[in-house]
Amino acid sequence: MEDLNLLYERFQTKLQNVAGECHRVKTFQEASELIVKIVQEKGIESIAMINSPMAKAMNLKEALSANGVKVFTDRYPETAASANAGITEMKWAVAELGTLVQYCEDVNERLCSSFTPIHIALVQTSTLLPDIMSALITIKNEPRIPGFVGFVTGPSRTSDIERVLTIGVHGPEQLIAVFVDEQVGEGVVNG
Amino acid sequence: MADAQFKKEIENALENEVLRGALGRFGDVYGKSREQAYQGYDFPALREKVVEAKSYAAEHLDEMLDQFEKAATARGAKVFRAETGEDAKRYIVELAKAQKVKNIVKSKSMASEEIHLNDALLKEGFDVQETDLGEWIIQLAGQRPSHMVMPAIHMTKEQVADTFNANLSYTSDPVIAKLVKTARREMRKKFMDADMGISGANIAVAETGTLMMLTNEGNARLTATWPRVHVFLVGIEKFVPKFEDAAYILQTLPRNGTAQQITSYVTMITGPNPTYYPDGSIQDKEFHIILMDNGRRKMYEDEKFKQVFNCIRCAACLNVCPAFQLVGGHVYGHIYTGGIGTILTAFLNSEKDAENPQNLCLQCGKCTEVCAGNLDIPGMILEIRNRIGEKKGLPATQKFILDVVSNRRLFHSLLRVASKAQRPFSKGGPTIRHLPMFLSGLTEGRSLPTIADVPFRDVIKNMKQEVKNPKGTVAFFGGCLVDFVYPKIGEGVVKVLNEKGYKVIFPEGQSCCGAPASYMGDRQNARKSAIMNIEAMNAENVDYVVSACPTCTHALVESYKELLADDPAMLKRAEELSKKSMDFAKLLTILGGLEKGGDGVPLKVTYHDSCHLRRKMGLIAEPRNIISNIKGVEFVEMNESDRCCGFAGSYSIKFPEMSGPILQRKLKNIEATGADVVAVDCPGCLMQINGGADQAGLNIKVKHTAELLLEKHLNAK
Questions:
Q1: Where are the alpha helices (DSSP H) in chain A?
Q2: Mean pLDDT computed over every residue of chain A
Q3: Is B129 within 8 Å of B222 (Cβ atoms)?
Q4: Which residues of A touch B264 (CB under 8 A)?
Q5: What's the mean pLDDT in A135-158?
Q6: What is the sign of the dihedral through the CA atoms of B222, B224, B230 and B233?
Q7: Strand, coil or helix: what is A171?
Q8: Residues A120, A175: Cα–Cα separation, whole Å
Q9: What is the structure's pLDDT at B717?
Q10: DSSP state letter for B603
Q11: Cβ separation B265–A152 shorter than 8 A
């Protein structure tokens, strides 16, 4: 746990440096409450969400719906294009530069994480890896390298006009990472 | 060699304040931001890894191609090898037709720009949309990219707004955040409607068939997300052998390109991914990879240019180039810009297209210092210059001058005549401020030094050399400037070496080192000079050969060996000369330096690194230590001390309009230190900086380190 704390600290600093938001909670219950709060604060009314193992473990759809937020878990080509935010689960987090790693062969995961203006990324704290090299080796050692692997480090950005940094071009304008210590299932450590 | 049209384009670029503003602002901050981005990382070690992976891939190109094809095919990709750009275009057009494609979105691909893919697709009636913001802007404006990483850096927000307003049904204010929003809105529709995506790749992994793209905007992700047909156009220089080799490129490309630690997105695609089809079903995409040669293999088979396969297209070489910073990318004439662009243009377009832009290179070598692939960009540009020179011959006037210079007796007697003939212009002073008529370009923004009354070769004959505990003999290679313009530097060198126990001889038969011929692309005359000087210096009979001009030293140490590689007997002598030759600052350092001493009078001194001394010989601390060791000297560093002064030999004559602003920037940096003296180790830099300071009326002296030692250390005894 000591190591994970250090990795998390590094991750958080790095992600915040590139204008990403980063939170960490212990339990799925706390995670659900935190996300409801973030969603309300940002005035998010509709969300396209992949009902991933983590989302299920926090009963996220129910919690958000109970608070008046429209949560879509189907018809993604329409819903992801129009929703205020998307929620998906990440495979790994890389501490070195604050990078989230997603395995996105599923087109719906791609839509929810890249077409929406705000992306809320769910992460198991236990998936923290130290650096880019270990992330690449981990991916390579999968039985089959996923067809689509995305490294995400902060929101979408451009400096194409007069070299002025502007956040949010094609991809999400806001990236919010929510780390949860509690493990899905029976405390199986995932990495 | 630069033609009139080219000169005109340079002039236009120099007058374009928008361009100079954006490029200048970026250039000003890039160096420090890049350094920050590498904090905690060992750049030389990282780039060694890049070179290791990329050069392995280059050495095993066919193996890489086969491996990649096999791995990608096993994952369901269709791989096509395109020999030419035409082959690639035909394949894509046929594919689009067969798949009944209407709308195409593209994420950044320089390879597609290189072959004018958009034109081919538009001609067939497809709607083609660039999605990288910068690429889209220039697509709408009907222009070419001016920078590999920041294609629209030459435009202002006002110009971007005008471009948008001329092409869209509503107006956008010239506010950057709003313009970006407009792009997002417009592009969103395009991404949703597209049935084909075309992408370029930054990295192709041979063992897994994976393609990787680095973007900040997210357009590459979106291009790879939705469209049911996906085509990658990949140059065959993009391979790395192993998946994990990509780490080294991920660690260097963003830092070198835009001084970021990593781009917002890195997207790795291995084989087709499922997507939505028009009937609502989810199926694997139609996924094609084109591995394109289009002149690259020719580069790979050329021993001098194989190293280009180590290039990761980060554009750091553009970002630090003093010439690129002044004129931007468009004057380079083609898709690839800057130093590396000149080389790519020579192979991927034609040597002829590189003829003009190759002239822009100052040979300062700053690009090589930051290059992630450790490419000798100036060396390759020089090779192109030489090849053109050999094929076409040099213009008559240049050829005449170089023929004269390589004829020692003629050259030296002309110089002696000139020392008398210059009097009307020098008015008895040490500099010439104005020259009449067509020569006036030479004195624009800087004064020229007069030719010395007595050349050093005559001065040394009358010098009394007192060597107390004789240790050996040093042969002094003067070079034209020390010999005929700045004999004082020679005096300093001799007295300092005497102090260290060495007698100095000045072999009479020596002449110009041949660098002017080398740098102008006249290998024949350079070779003549090499032979003449090897015979004159007779290195076999002395302990060391010293020069106080780093350009000459470089010729003695490196160039002669290369020029005479095909002549075993001369090569052996060239190697002997190379072994014994070194620059003054280095020789003094290995001889243990002078004892601390000096007149003790307070003097603030700053130091300008000459390109050849710092980057070809790696002498950075040595001259600073020598200067700081003089009693009374307060040493201060200037900003950008290693930035070229703009002299660059004949460059300042061929391009005074470029050399001038580069010199002005140097003078500004010098002035800001408040120093009394700027020390240099190169008589060429001395001439340039002194000339600029004189004409600008700056109250600062420019001195060679040897001269400073003579005046402030030795003469103080």
A1: 2-17, 28-41, 53-57, 60-66, 76-82, 107-114, 132-140, 184-187
A2: 94
A3: no
A4: 18, 152-157, 171
A5: 97
A6: positive
A7: coil
A8: 6
A9: 67
A10: E
A11: yes
Contact B136, B130 (CB under 8 A): yes
Pairing of strands A148-152, B265-270: antiparallel
- Asked if B85 contacts B115 with a C-beta cutoff of 8 angstroms, the reply is yes
Give the pLDDT of residue B390.
Answer: 85
Taking only the tens place, the pLDDT of each residue in B349-403 is: 888 889 889 989 999 999 999 999 999 999 999 999 999 888 887 777 777 777 7
Q: Model pTM?
A: 0.91
Query: Is there a contact between B217 and A154 if contact means CB atoms under 8 Å apart?
Result: no
Q: Tell me the CA distances in angstroms from B51 to B57, B241, B300, B309, one per residue in order.
A: 10, 12, 15, 9
The Cα B651–Cα B687 span in angstroms is: 14
Structure-token pair, residue B163: 């471009």
| DSSP-assigned beta bridge partners for residue B577 | none
How far CA B659 is from CA of A134, B318, B381, in Å, comes to: 48, 17, 18
Higher pLDDT, A125 or B468: A125
Show residues of chain B in contact with A146, CB under 8 Å.
Answer: 270
Q: How confident is the model at residue A140 (pLDDT cuts 50, 70, 90)?
A: very high
In sequence order, the β-bridge partners of residue B266 are A151, B214
Task: Give the closest of A133, A154, A159 to B244, CB-based.
Answer: A133
Which H or E run contains B586? helix B584-590
Quick one: average pLDDT of A38-52?
Answer: 97
B263 contacts in chain A (CB < 8 Å): 153
The per-residue pLDDT for A191 is 37
pLDDT the model gives residue B30:
92
DSSP letters for B55-114: HHHHHTHHHHHHHHHHHHHHTT-EEEEESSHHHHHHHHHHHHHHTT--EEEE---HHHHH
C-alpha B643/C-alpha B667 separation (Å) is 11
pLDDT of residue B591: 96
Q: What are the tokens at A76?
A: 């993604």
List the alpha helices (DSSP H) in B607-655. Answer: 611, 621-628, 651-654
* Chain B residues within an 8 Å CB radius of A163: 22, 25-26, 150, 153
A136 CA to chain B: closest CA distance, Å? 6
Considering only the beta carbons, identify the residue of A152, A157, A164 that sits closest to B217: A157
CB distance B457 to B508 below 8 Å: yes
For tokens 């294609």, name the residue. B151
Neighboring chain A residues of B273 at a CB cutoff of 8 Å: 104-105, 107, 147-148
What residues contact residue B382 under an 8 Å CB cut-off, 6+ apart?
B361, B363, B518, B519, B521
Residue type, A120: I
**Which stretches in chain B have pLDDT values below 50?**
none
pLDDT at res. B18: 77
pLDDT the model gives residue A186: 54
Nearest to B260 by CA among B219, B296, B314: B314
B81: Cβ contacts below 8 Å, ≥ 6 apart: B65, B69, B290, B291, B292, B293
Q: What is the pLDDT of residue B654?
A: 82
- Measured in angstroms, the CA of B16 and the nearest CA of chain A are apart by 14
